[in-house]
Specification:
By secondary structure, the protein is of the alpha+beta class. Among the domains are: 37 residues; 118 residues; 106 residues, Chitinase A, domain 3 (Roll), CATH 3.10.50; 102 residues, Chitinase A, domain 3. The chain has a four-stranded antiparallel β-sheet. Helix 8 packs across helix 21 and helix 9 packs across helix 19. The longest helix is centred in the middle third of the chain and has 34 residues. The protein is extended, with a radius of gyration of 37 Å.
Length: 623
């Protein structure tokens, strides 16, 4: 493809393009050309801040992936409208930019340390429960971010989250609102239902009906679109046999391991806190009095029980138990590690107040032998090297595949085998490679399906990466009437049976509303339900929803009536007899539960209103 562009740039195509540009300049002027290209890389502007086409593409792709994951593997991805996806993604980016600008103007902030902590705690970036830098690079690369871009994106999300939490948390509800909602939520209804069953056996269809339906819905009767894929698979486990560990490296790692084994020290303390009623000097003076009591021979534990403001440890004589370095406040820790057995420190200031510290005991670390750790250390070293090799090989595979016209070259360079999948449609297969949503998206993307390019490297799981291309593509073809006649007959029979029973049910409803009592039909009996709640288990959900939407009967003994068509085609006549709302008082826990729910809902509504206000005030341009 690149060579064709180079070749054609020297011929008549290049001359034609230059001619068109000259004509445009002559017709519209230089200003029009340059102002038109000024926003050629942007999708929109919000208060002068650009949203690039690249950002829009990333957002649309992410939205597509999320939708496909939510809809499940049986959903046909071809039904997703790319234009609608891009419109929704752009709407989301504009909303995000408006909120981000507001958060920055309000001077919300998020420290670098807090951001680092957030990143290292994300499970997606961890290997065996610990943050792994190579894994981090691999994941964000799949997302289309560099390290700097990802950190910037996450920082912005945190700022918006802070603002959202602040607005939502400021919402409140009154006691009357809580009680009104509780009455509504705990409302019960008395009703009866009569189910009229659809009768497919009573439907008579002619061949002409089948023909007419086929002609009207011809576009629905197409064979499935299918592709056969060629792919190469890169697995992390394949690198373990290629990695060797030297004894010197094992010894170095062993020394590092045992160097981290620090002694544990058992401390006890007496704490005097600095408060609004006790300033720093007064707190220190009080602690010095305690020190004088100790110097006179009083027991440390007894003085701690009497004076220490740390009531948790005071109950056990100030004992804090054994701990290693990095647990206590730095000034506390420095003083503790300077003490000898049973020695008491001078007053020590920490962020919590003033302390007297006593060293109760020291536990030397148990140092395991090299032989007992050798297997573990070898696994760790190999895992580190394998992870690095796997990430490098994944990058190499991605680059070579991009530059190659098939999979032969990348397979040869990396010692892999080109494999072929079974034919699959847009809905994918049941398991393995063809059930992976990212694989399906790539296989049916314009670049891979129409341009026959290799896909980018796709991560199936943390240990497997694949690159694929389309080997064969079978386009949908029109199915003959004979192939679909039976399914059309079944569909039409169900529809007409449902239409017939709906007409019968609506006629019955008119009679009931007019006060008439139609004669009972064989097999038709009213099912009476009393005091049904909104979560009644033994009532069809669609019927229950309709019942709680019906207005309360205005006059006793004069029920309201409604009808519901079920997915089965049956028609249910509903008779609402009465509505009861409990007046009993709520417990403290019930009130708190309803208040939290209503406040949360109100907070979300407040945030949505604030977001809409910001958008209404913003200067937004779409290109």
């Amino acid at each position: 493809m690149l060579q064709n562009i180079r070749d054609n740039s020297q011929g008549w195509i290049a001359k034609t393009i230059i001619g068109v540009i000259v004509a445009l300049l002559a017709l519209t002027g230089f200003d029009a050309i340059f102002s038109g290209t000024g926003n050629s890389q942007n999708a929109a502007e919000v208060n002068g801040q650009a949203i690039s086409l690249n950002q829009l593409s990333q957002a649309a792709d992410m939205q597509r992936r999320q939708l496909l994951q939510r809809l499940g593997k049986d959903f046909d991805s071809s039904q997703l409208d790319d234009k609608l996806l891009r419109e929704a993604a752009l709407k989301g980016l504009i909303e995000r930019e408006v909120l981000l600008q507001s958060a920055k103007n309000a001077e919300f902030s998020f420290s670098t340390q807090a951001l680092d902590q957030q990143i290292v705690q994300l499970p997606e970036f961890q290997v065996e429960g610990k943050f792994n830098a190579d894994r981090f690079d691999q994941v964000i690369r799949q997302m289309g971010y560099s390290r700097l871009q990802f950190r910037q994106m996450l920082t912005e999300e945190m700022l918006i989250g802070q603002m959202r939490a602040g607005l939502s948390a400021s919402s409140f509800v009154t006691d009357e609102q809580v009680l009104a909602f509780a009455r509504l939520e705990n409302q019960t209804r008395d009703f009866a239902t009569l189910t009229l069953q659809a009768d497919p056996s009573a439907v008579q269809l002619a061949d002409a009906d089948i023909h007419a339906y086929y002609d009207e819905h011809a576009a629905e009767f197409m064979s499935a679109e299918q592709v056969t894929l060629e792919y190469i698979e890169l697995k992390k486990e394949a690198f373990f046999d290629q990695v060797k560990v030297e004894d010197a490296d094992l010894q170095a790692l062993y020394q590092q391991e045992i160097a981290n084994l620090a002694e544990q020290r058992q401390a006890a303390h007496i704490l005097v806190e600095v408060t609004d009623t006790l300033n720093d000097q007064q707190a220190k003076a009080k602690l010095e009095e305690a020190k004088a009591r100790l110097d006179q021979g009083e027991d440390f534990a007894a003085v701690a029980k009497d004076l220490s403001d740390d009531r948790g440890s005071a109950a056990v004589g100030g004992d804090l138990g054994y701990a290693g370095p990095g647990v206590f406040d730095p000034s506390f820790e420095k003083a503790l590690y300077a003490l000898q057995q049973d020695e008491v420190s001078t007053p020590v200031r920490s962020q919590f107040g003033w302390h007297l510290i006593k060293l109760l005991g020291v536990q030397a670390p148990e140092v395991p032998g090299f032989a007992s750790l050798k297997d573990k250390l070898e696994r760790e070293l190999k895992t580190q090297q394998v992870e690095q090799r796997f990430v490098e090989a994944s990058k190499t595979l991605d680059n070579i595949a991009f530059e190659s016209s098939d999979l032969v070259q990348p397979a040869q360079e990396l010692g892999l085998t080109v494999q072929t999948s079974a034919p699959i449609g847009r809905q994918g297969g049941d398991a393995g490679l063809t059930a992976n949503r990212q694989v399906l998206e790539a296989a049916f993307s314009p670049e891979v399906l129409e341009e026959r390019a290799n896909s980018m490297a796709i991560e199936l799981d943390p240990d497997t990466v694949v690159v694929l291309r389309v080997k064969t593509h079978t386009k949908p073809t029109q199915l003959q009437l004979e192939q679909v006649a039976s399914s059309i007959r079944e569909q039409l029979t169900r529809e007409r049976a449902s239409e017939a029973v709906q007409a019968k049910g609506k006629a019955l409803l008119e009679s009931l509303r007019a006060g008439q009592t139609p004669a009972s039909q064989p097999g038709q009996t009213w099912n009476v339900v009393e005091a049904a709640t909104r979560n009644q288990d033994d009532v069809e959900p669609a019927v229950l929803q309709a019942i709680f939407r019906m207005p309360k009967p205005e006059v006793a003994e004069q029920p309201n009536f409604s009808g519901v068509t079920l997915k089965t085609g049956d028609f249910v006549v509903v008779q609402l007899k009465g509505v009861s709302a409990p007046q009993s008082t709520l417990s403290k826990d019930e009130k708190a539960m309803y208040r939290r729910y209503l406040a949360s809902r109100s907070g979300e509504q407040d945030f949505a209103a604030y977001r809409n206000h910001l958008q209404a005030q913003a200067k937004i341009e779409r290109f």
